[in-house]
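Continuing the series of single-chain predictions for the mutant panel. This is the parent chain; the variants come on the following pages.
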Amino acid sequence: MRLSTFLKAATALVAGVAADINVIGPFALRITGKTDSSINGYVWACHAGAATEGFCYAAGTEPVSGSIYEFYYNYTYYEAYSYPGYITYVFAYQGGDGNPVKVPSFAHIYPNWGSNVHTMLVPPGTDDGTPISLNLTTGLFSLGLLFDDTHWNETMPAGEPAEELSNFYLCYQWTGGYWFRSLAWVSGSRGATPQNPSCEPVNLGVESLAMTDVVVGLDAVRSKKRSNGGARRHM
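Parent structure:
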């Protein structure tokens, strides 16, 4: 995965964002197979229904320009502790007065009660979303504070550490109201088998779109985090 480009280069901060919200981007969302090396490409925002986008897959070795390939990450932190944030896509349209309107919107993992495979979609707005962690060292996404209950019984577990999981899969599935090969999350412990046999395990990461877009890098983000002096930041 060509994450080093993003990690060494910088990412732009969204203009006009309030000081108490940390936003990095725009960047490309990179997909690479964990077991199938032929999976090598990017996420694009595909139409999944009324004002809803899916996380569809496009093969390729270089980021593609265009707003449907541009994503952001909103996150919070407190001193040395990182908190999960939200993968964000910006809906853009022309308002009734003719002026452009942009609506930042959080990605959401939607449960499928008939399967352990759950589709990732982006509805408009930031009222809801699935908290997802971005490792600022590796550039990879995961879900944190998860527990493996495969050994639980009537005795309450003590001192059991929470896990970070990366159960992202690429599947042929209903993506909203359309049939696409798109990104999903498989519920269960590490190595859980997806019910959908078309699913392949993947890494989901970030990659710089273009050097011309860069103003602030992840190193600067880390430095800001270390020098914060305990000030609490909120989404």
